[in-house]
Amino acid sequence: MDNHLTELNIQQREAVTCINGPLMIIAGAGSGKTKVLTTRIAHLMASGVDAFNILALTFTNKAALEMKERIEKILNITEVRNLYIGTFHSVFARILRVEAAHLGYPNNFTIYDTDDSRSVLKTIINELDLDDKHYKPSVIHNRISAAKNALMSPVEYNNDYYIQQEDIKTKRPAIGQIYKTYTDKCFKNGAMDFDDLLLKMHELLKNHPDVLHKYQYKFKYVLIDEYQDTNPVQYQIAKLLAATHENICVVGDDAQSIYSFRGATIENILQFKKDYEDVKIIKLEQNYRSSQTILNAANKIIEHNKNQIQKLLWTENKEGEKIKLVRTMTDNDEGKFVANTIQEKKLRNHYYNNDFAILYRTNAQSRAFEESLRRMGIAYRIYGGMSFYQRKEIKDLLAYLRVVVNPKDEEALKRIINYPARGIGKTTIEKCLTIANEQNTSMYNVLQHAAEHGFKASALESIQNFVTMIRYFQSMLSNTNAYNFAVQVGKHTNIVKELFNDKTTEGLARYENIQELLNSIKEWTEMPSNEDGELGDKSLGSYLQQITLLTDSDNDKEEGDTVKLMTIHAAKGLEFACVFIVGVEEMLFPNVMSINTREELEEERRLFYVATTRAKEKLWLTYANMRYRFGQLVQNEPSRFLQEIPAEYVDKSYAGVGARNQEAENVNRKFRTVEDNFEYNDIKKNSKSQTWNYKQQGKSQPSSYVANNPTRTKNIQHIPSSNFTPSDTSNLKIGQQVEHQKFGFGSVIKIEGSAHNPIATIQFELSGEKKIMLNYAKLRMVE
DNA sequence: GATTGCGCGATTTTT
DNA sequence: TCGCGCAATC
Fold first, then answer.
1. Residue A601 CA distance to nucleotide B12 C1' (Å)
2. SS3 labels along A341-409
3. Closest Cα partner for A573 from A383, A316, A303, A293?
């Protein structure tokens, strides 16, 4: 332990060893923040603090995991397991699971992700007969989220004059009503959304002194990472938890606060000093990451912000190269320049793809870079986009698990009640919902007593079969672990089989995704737990709660050597040898949406600061004269931020129009043959099946690109035989060979549905299993 | 039930 | 431009 202390500088050591009382660490970019936090926790334990009494809150699972791993290197593993390290959301979810009854919630409450929340809102908006084009669920959700993060209840929302005026101005006066209905509905469904995890935690501590005391006593030491990004609820919770012992240590950097649009406020940093009289403040100002040039430039940039805590980052690192400013004609040229330059640097300076990051302000900018990297055969990976758990097939299977665990979960129920199709159509579902509303009960409860509600015979039978199935699952749940259970559900519902039979590229990917999900459940089931019951809960309910809080990157197994493409937001906390900040233009960066107030502009500047400080050795700033935006060619001025960097740190020789990417283009030409060899290597390194991380659902376009993949195929379209004439299918039999104009040849494996609307399930040779409505589809019987 | 076609809208987003 | 969501078709 002691030798870990010797590795620290004076300020870092002080931050680690000063264990009692309130402490605020202002940690500049690259100043060894994580090192300090982890060493501090290790030091606490070495000083005799029990792991069970330490709570460390982070913003991302990734940060939590990294901390855990680092502490494990210092301490033994069992001890680390007993620590409470996690995101605000995941830690609170665990506590709420234990304490749910105090709030009238079931232990197995569902956690709604953003999609679920929006879907609930959409239902409500339609029920209230409002126009969902004007009352867009995403907009409403943001508004409600903001209210929750500011600790504002629906009642307070509706009584707030200023808020009401705002909503009237935007012609959305019903938001308050929607908020109220939404809250009620979530409660009825036994569900909490992301914001509720914070809000309910606060409510729990605020209204239940016994519970508050329990956790105050338990968490004698509280640590909070990325403090500049906390919002008012998180702030209040931290304050409550730390009130007895006041052993609270927060780490943050006001200059890196970039999430104010999500309710985060730097106020919390300023308020901290007021809340705790004897607060100790330590500044970490030595930067271990960047070259002097890069760091000096960053310092100069952030100086333009009025609102900030004074500090000056310095480094002992080498001066390094100047920052290269690059102007290109178009956005496509920008893409080419970056790809060419990466190629050049790889060859000349022996960098790996992993050393490069391309950072942009908006996701839409990624395309030009994807194209040029692909053309050059450079393996890359895009971060952001659809997460694994948002995929349809994953959500479908999870929805079954959710309903079994919490039958009140209406969102999940609606998702699976007729998937795979089992004859419970729209009308039946509508009717259930109406009855549930009238009787103020859950939809599942209506299904359970369907016989009393006068459904027609066929619908009633389908419903009863469905309920029987769910009951069967529920009884199974008590006899087996989460993994076996999930496998059984997949089998029993035919979901797995259906995907298995779909031989299209997308179908294959979906099948693999399901397998991946099952694997992850298995892994989770087998993961060792701590000595404390709360973290050792291996039930399915506990799994579902934690899974919702995971994001894409949490599944991210290190995969190959790739150039990283991501938004600047996503890059926070990361570092790369070589960084390209692209699209450094007015209207883009700073973004048009954020140039109206000083606050907005300063946040954009902090964003630019964050981007700059990601670079260790080399930094390029690029901008284009013209680029396509929303299909229109627009001309942009270079960003105002560029002028904020003193000329002495910048190499402008690439910024002249004529000179633009000549050098890189020459290099490119010269090394073309070598490049092809590289391409081959990239394929090999990167061609392990990457089944998720697709940018958009259903598209077979992996965001991690495999160079010139020869196996990539378009779906083969069937060309109908010349003698194709539709047959009369009224007495189609199982086993009959048929031809479909599009799907090709196949054989009938099942016929269901009513007499006037028969549905045949046909196994096609090329297209997999399909359900065909015989009234519409043209089928030719093959002799 | 599943596929095609049109119209619309389009920052950032740790959970 | 491009992707999606919903309505019209098979």
1. 13
2. HHHHHHHHHCCCHHHEEEEECCHHHHHHHHHHHHHHCCCEEECCCCCHHHCHHHHHHHHHHHHHHCCCC
3. A383
Protein contacts on strand C: list nucleotides below 7 Å from a Cβ: 1-4, 6, 10
- Structure tokens belonging to residue A417: 């009640």
Most confident range, picked from A215-219, A654-658, A712-716:
A215-219
pTM value is 0.84
Q: Is the CB of A699 under 7 A from strand C?
A: yes
* Angstrom distance, A40 CA to B6 C1': 59
C-alpha atoms less than 13 angstroms from C-alpha of A368 in its C-beta half-sphere: 24
Distances (CA, A) of A336 to A77, A355, A367: 48, 18, 11
Q: Which residues contact A334 (CB under 8 A, 6 or more apart)?
A: A326, A328, A368, A582, A583, A622, A623, A624, A627
Q: In the structure encoding, which two tokens stand for residue A194, read together?
A: 């992301």
Q: Which nucleotide has its C1' atom closest to residue A741's CA?
A: C10
Task: Give the whole-angstrom CA distance, residue A4 versus residue A17.
Answer: 12
- Residues of A recognised as catalytic: 33-34, 225-226, 256, 614
Cα–Cα distance between A301 and A304 in angstroms, integer? 6
Let me know: does A116 contact A414? Beta carbons within 8 Å.
Answer: no
Establish whether the linkage from the previous residue to A710 is cis, with ω within 30° of 0.
no
Strand C lies under 7 A from the Cβ of residue A777: yes
pLDDT tens for A649-659 read 999 888 764 44
Distance A771 CA to C7 C1' (A): 21
